[in-house]
């Protein structure tokens, strides 16, 4: 069966790719679920079409994961993503990163940086970029941003600088650093595995898995150019979306939404519990704290009985406040301004902090009401920031998204639990007594050992990383129960799900077909221009779908294009790898961009404003760098 000269296998794979791209771009369902859906669909194609052939519906079965008569089963190919060295290595790197984070070494560095930068924005920017770039080369760059985001947010606040001026550069610089080594980003690890497999299958002897420092020279070039851009032109293109504020209540513009009311002697709610009287209401009002004499109570407030003279700090709008006061017998306390100074009292166990909804969070697409947020986490949400938009009314029914920033009031214990919860990133430094500082040399030594073993011995990166992860547990840097929480399982399932798609693209001849089209479009262009074209196409694709999905789709195409041009296939693979590792133009192009979207108060267009010129510069720098360092002719 064929259509327009295309085999049934190619048509099926292209249809799956189109649907997957649409779902990746729109995120109607989580990207990891889309990836698993792709894997399951590919696994079903052969057995379903075989059955349809038996029934006489089709002329012949459709094969997408294996050639007819192959010794390798379609099931083994379809599930190979779970056994992939890329998937295992990325999983181990998450554990290694968590071990480093638990020691508190990054926080110690942060305090040193803050002492150096003070209120000098140039120093703050330079220190942020200079710290995250090299760190991202040796622990996963996504983990590096998650670890450093609270430090940089505090740096901005203490230095009286808008966090908007530092957080997008933090994300971009982590991508520069991710290009330094094989383990800097999951994209590099995945590209390495695909490249090695294609080299073996196509008989291209020089096409092998990447070594640890295979492309470090190009990474240093890219990082240097990127840092110069961010420190010069870029710093003027970064908008100041969040104005410099004295405190968080000012930053979130809470002046008209926070106030205090006192319970009158004749109030009808005296003697009732807080839950029955005030919390279980359809009105848009939240109780932030209860002040009774010299004591201040936070969540859980529901079981407490209301007494005359109790003072409640409430979050609501003026119209609702009037309605509540009339109904429940409350008086407004005159000339009271509720500020961070009143809500933030760490010595008494009270904290006002920002938390960011992390990628893979179970709260994504939930609401504060449906997730039972207040009771579940013993925390009160005062405001929600999504990009540059602030929500301070009717927040309970807003569906949460990755990157949303919540301003919450909670106890120290609650903040500690949130800080340990992979659903969130606490965007301020939290003084944690459980940092294992005595393990700093051990954790850093284990990461160095992983790098050294993979770079200087025959031990492959997956084995070295797994050994390092095991070492983190055996040496006490991590508790056994902590390793599961340290892994971003959405990334693991994304990798496992999309890897079979690359196999199907190669098996059915889809990659060769796309390569034919690219070569046919530019028959008279020199190889270096086609190389640059591969970078641009991959970069544009990565800015709307997952970076890992881009690598899976484009690496086989790059190898086919290079083969047809008689060019260096490794050079073309590097162009795709670097383009997929550096997606600057949208908040959805790379996880680190989503991390800073809410805390920085950015608009979607801010990424194009700062990232567009940088993407264009990198297209030129990366293309010329590859051509100069590796050349475009196949190695002899």
Automatic annotation (TrEMBL):
It is a multi-pass membrane protein. Its main location: membrane. GO terms for cellular component: plasma membrane. It is found in: Membrane. Pfam families: CitMHS, TrkA_C. The chain crosses the membrane at residues 6-26, 33-58, 78-100, 166-190, 210-233, 442-467, 487-505, 517-538, 569-590, 610-632. InterPro entries: Cit_transptr-like_dom, DASS-Related_Transporters, RCK_C, RCK_C_sf. Coiled coil: none annotated. One of its GO terms (molecular function) is monoatomic cation transmembrane transporter activity. Residues 246-330, 339-424 form the RCK C-terminal domain. The keyword Transferase does not apply. Keywords: Membrane, Repeat, Transmembrane, Transmembrane helix, Transport. One of its GO terms (biological process) is potassium ion transport. This is Di- and tricarboxylate transporter. It comes from Halapricum desulfuricans. The gene is citT2.
């Amino acid at each position: 069966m064929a259509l327009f000269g295309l085999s049934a296998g190619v048509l099926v794979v292209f249809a799956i790719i189109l649907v997957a791209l649409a779902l990746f771009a729109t995120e109607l369902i989580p990207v990891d679920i889309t990836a698993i859906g792709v894997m399951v669909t590919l696994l079903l194609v052969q057995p379903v079409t075989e059955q349809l052939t038996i029934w006489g519906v089709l002329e012949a079965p459709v094969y997408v994961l294996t050639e007819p008569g192959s010794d390798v089963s379609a099931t083994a190919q379809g599930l190979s993503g779970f056994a992939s060295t890329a998937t295992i290595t990325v999983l181990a790197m998450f554990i290694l990163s968590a071990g480093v984070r638990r020691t508190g070494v990054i926080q110690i560095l942060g305090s040193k940086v803050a002492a150096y930068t003070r209120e000098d924005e140039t120093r703050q920017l330079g220190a942020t970029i200079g710290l995250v770039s090299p760190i991202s080369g040796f622990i996963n760059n996504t983990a590096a941003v998650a670890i450093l985001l609270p430090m940089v947010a505090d740096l901005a606040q203490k230095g009286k600088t808008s966090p908007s001026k530092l957080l997008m550069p933090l994300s971009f610089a982590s991508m520069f650093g991710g290009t330094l080594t094989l383990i800097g980003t999951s994209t590099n690890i995945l590209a390495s595995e695909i490249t090695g497999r294609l080299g073996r299958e196509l008989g291209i002897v020089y096409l092998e898995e990447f070594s640890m420092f295979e492309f470090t020279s190009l990474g240093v070039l890219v990082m240097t150019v990127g840092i110069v851009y961010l420190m010069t032109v870029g710093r003027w293109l970064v908008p100041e979306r969040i104005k410099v504020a004295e405190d968080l209540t000012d930053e979130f513009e809470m002046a008209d939404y926070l106030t205090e009311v006192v319970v009158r002697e004749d109030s009808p709610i005296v003697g009732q519990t807080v839950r029955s009287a005030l919390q279980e209401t359809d009105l848009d009002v939240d109780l932030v704290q209860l002040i009774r004499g010299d004591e201040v109570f936070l969540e859980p407030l529901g079981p407490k009985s209301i007494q005359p003279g109790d003072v409640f700090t409430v979050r609501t709008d003026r119209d609702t406040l009037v309605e509540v006061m009339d109904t429940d017998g409350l008086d407004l306390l005159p000339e009271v301004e509720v500020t961070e100074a009143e809500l933030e009292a760490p010595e008494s166990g009270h904290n006002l902090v920002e938390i960011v909804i992390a990628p893979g969070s179970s709260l994504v697409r939930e609401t504060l009401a449906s997730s039972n947020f207040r009771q579940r986490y013993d925390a009160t949400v005062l405001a929600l920031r999504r990009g540059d938009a602030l929500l301070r009314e009717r927040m309970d029914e807003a569906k949460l998204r990755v990157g949303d920033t919540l301003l919450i009031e909670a106890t120290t214990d609650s903040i500690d639990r949130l800080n340990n919860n992979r659903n969130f990133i606490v965007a301020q430094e939290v003084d944690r007594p459980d940092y294992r500082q005595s393990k700093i040399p051990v954790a850093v030594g284990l990461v160095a050992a992983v790098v050294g073993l993979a770079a200087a011995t025959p031990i492959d990166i997956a084995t070295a990383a797994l050994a390092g992860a095991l070492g983190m547990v055996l040496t006490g840097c991590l508790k056994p129960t902590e390793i599961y929480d340290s892994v971003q399982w959405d990334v693991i399932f994304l990798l496992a799900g999309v890897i079979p798609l690359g196999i199907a693209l190669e098996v059915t001849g889809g990659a060769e077909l796309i390569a034919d089209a690219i070569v046919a479009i530019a028959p008279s262009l020199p190889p270096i221009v086609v190389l640059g074209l591969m970078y641009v196409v991959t970069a544009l694709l990565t800015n709307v779908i997952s970076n890992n999905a881009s690598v899976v789709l484009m690496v086989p195409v790059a190898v086919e294009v290079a083969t047809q041009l008689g060019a260096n296939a490794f050079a073309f693979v590097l162009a795709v790898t670097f383009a997929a590792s550096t997606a600057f133009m949208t908040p959805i192009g790379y996880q680190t961009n989503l991390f800073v979207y809410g805390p920085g108060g950015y608009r979607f267009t801010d990424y194009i404003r700062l990232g567009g010129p940088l993407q264009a510069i990198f297209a030129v720098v990366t293309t010329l760098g590859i051509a100069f360092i590796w050349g475009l002719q196949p190695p002899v």
